Amino acid sequence: xxxxxxxxxxxxxxxAATPAWSQRGxxxxxxxxxxxxxxxxxxxxxxxxxxxxxxxxxxMLLREEEKLARDAYQALYAKxxxxxxxxxxxxxxxxxxxxxxxxxxxxxxxxxxxxAGVFANPDLQQLYNDLIAKGNVSLLDALQVGVxxxxxxxxxxxxxxxxxxxxxxxxxxxxxxNGSLNHLAAFNSHIDAVSSK
Length: 197
Prior knowledge:
This protein is mainly alpha-helical. The protein has 7 helices and no strands.
């Protein structure tokens, strides 16, 4: 199920208004990375800090990277019909939505294109094209595409986290990083299973 802007705005209000939110944070984080319907822990807009140019650039990149992951897993599920792609695509949609809320909150222009497989960033466009071509070769190649996507996400999230002290941005990035680490482990596990047959 895709989450609406209203759902995430409701999460913002609830978190800001609930003194004990930090005690429930671990549960919310677990739900987010396990594919549950929990919020990705955005703070109240009252405590928002301005973003630097570098922070904005990372945010825009990560928005399209989450789209790339979602679109690629949709395409690979259509090709191979293997559940892992469908499950992780749903998680990537939530990641995409969470970054979108940050982009809107900070008044940035959303680079995400509405058409699947189309990207404003030419490097990501080429990467997507290359990954889909590889993923269409075999199921093992498709699973290796998943590994490549998650490894890139992890690398770029760590780089983005290293240049910001913005608490709400860090909170979202931390949850995305946890999700990507779990996705990476799942793809590697499936590769082991396929390779052993």
